[in-house]
Amino acid sequence: MGHNEPIRKSTHGVSAPASEIPDKLYFRIGEVARLCEVPAYVLRFWESEFPQLKPNKGGTGQRLYRRRDVEMALRVKTLLKEEGYTIPGARAVLKSEFKQKEPQLSLIPTGAADAKQLRALRRELEAVLAMLSRPVGKAAAAQKPEPIQSIRNQRRAAAAKHADTSDILFNHSD
């Protein structure tokens, strides 16, 4: 038996390819066990051995597998049963596959047309900043901040004026 050959052949048949996984949001452990053609206790054991296989647990504690969890269970089965890896070996393969995934695409496009759009956007943002930085009017720009006492006096004068106006409006007799 060669180094890269499986330790044993699968007697359960071929597991379901990813394309045959039903289009559902969540799967119960029994459904996943049927798809992977392994008993449910094997899936629970794999969860303890492979950190990549972590189904959600509902309010009742029942395991709810997503599609990616089902695909991961199928990958684990392939590594263990069809390719003959040991559990530590399969764990290492999955870890290396995870590291080798393509990096996320850049959020900023790099084409010449895209650079032109970014420059136009920058000019627009600078114009908005300039508008927001300008004082509201000439009077606002010429005024110096008033001392607190002066502001209090203005408020008292406005309150007195309001009181005089309300006296005229509500105490007016014909």
Descriptive overview:
By secondary structure, the chain is mainly alpha-helical. The chain has helices at residues 29-36, 40-49, 67-82, 87-100, 112-133, 138-142, 148-170; strands at 27-28, 56-57, 63-65. Mean pLDDT is 76; it is low at 1-6 and 8-14.
Labels describing this entry:
single chain, 174 residues, mainly alpha, Multidrug-efflux Transporter Regulator, Chain: A, Domain 2, three-stranded antiparallel beta sheet, 7 helices, elongated, disordered N terminus
Task: Summarize it.
Helix content is 56%, strand content 4%. It has 174 residues and is mainly alpha-helical.
Secondary structure layout:
Elements: E1 27-28, H1 29-36, H2 40-49, E2 56-57, E3 63-65, H3 67-82, H4 87-100, H5 112-133, H6 138-142, H7 148-170
Antiparallel strand pairs: 1-3, 2-3
Estimated helix fraction: 55-70%
Choose one word for the global shape: elongated
State the total count of DSSP E strands. 3
Largest sheet: 3 strands, antiparallel
Query: In what order do the strands lie side by side in the largest sheet?
Result: 1-3-2
> What is the CATH C level class of the domain at 18-100, in words?
Mainly Alpha
Order of secondary-structure elements: EHHEEHHHHH
What is the quaternary state of this protein?
single chain
Look at the structure and give the mean pLDDT: 76
Please name the CATH architecture of the domain at 18-100.
Orthogonal Bundle
Please, how many helices?
7
CA-based gyration radius: 36 Å
